[in-house]
Amino acid sequence: xxxxxxxxxxxxxxxxxxxxxxxxxxxxxxxxxxxxxxxxxxxxxxxxxxxxxxxxxxxxxxxxxxxxxxxxxxxxxxxxxxxxxxxxxxxxxxxxxxxxxxxxxxxxxxxxxxxxxxxxxxxxxxxxxxxxxxxxxxxxxxxxxxxxxxxxxxxxxxxxxxxxxxxxxxxxxxxxxxxxxxxxxxxxxxxxxxxxxxxxxxxxxxxxxxxxxxxxxxxxxxxxxxxxxxxxxxxxxxxxxxxxxxxxxxxxxxxxxxxxxxxxxxxxxxxxxxxxxxxxxxxxxxxxxxxxxxxxxxxxxxxxxxxxxxx
Length: 311
Fold this sequence. Notes:
- The chain is an alpha+beta fold.
- The protein has helices spanning 2-19, 35-46, 53-69, 90-96, and strands at residues 77-81, 101-104, 114-122, 125-126, 129-139, 141-150, 160-166, 169-170, 181-188, 194-199, 223-231, 240-246, 249-257, 269-278, 296-308.
- It is globular, with a radius of gyration of 26 Å.
- Mean pLDDT is 85; it is low at 11-39 and 61-71.
């Protein structure tokens, strides 16, 4: 039993050091250090040294598992669309009501389901594929992720919108800023660069603001995993941010954002903004062929997910 007790103390000491910012050397079998009685007292309170060595070891395994995994609480999932199974859920059905969005059963990342968006060129860029989907929760921090593949001959032109997150009152499209309104989306840019595109509380700016990656991160004809992290600001304080990662690499981050000018439940993150099109709002953003005729560009999207918190 003494040998077993020493092994238990050594194991718990190791676990404790792994959770400590400043690990200290400790030989649990030594009675000359103050740590041994302290750990022994803790283990007795937890009942890990009671009974036989076998039963004590089982309790130890359970205790160590709690230490290792008990704090790893799964993120709250606010939206999850894979297009692989049932397609009659409310969110998928709402997306498919848009005539520019089409379900394809074998075009996804692993040859499974995905949706195709048609970017139909016209004199303001391309037709707007815009759908607002309520999230299953209201939070101050959230992470949006999805997979996208632009067609091999996709025309970036001057750029266009990509999806994002928003509150109850979304401000987009050059509409006036509102204290309780904002939006956080992305833009694809010429050559495959990407940028944050944010409607904040700046009263002198009409359209969205943000930062653009120096390098191209998006390659036509290739699947990319896109992540948008959004942290809301303290009301009236410039301490929010938006960050974009492409295939696990940070592409761009915009800090010091005043998304909202007031507090309240309506100003928090609660909507997924499915929003993609070329534009801008003038012919310079429109995809055209070599003769100047408007074209139809295509992109495929899969595995939309929004979770609470920054991940």
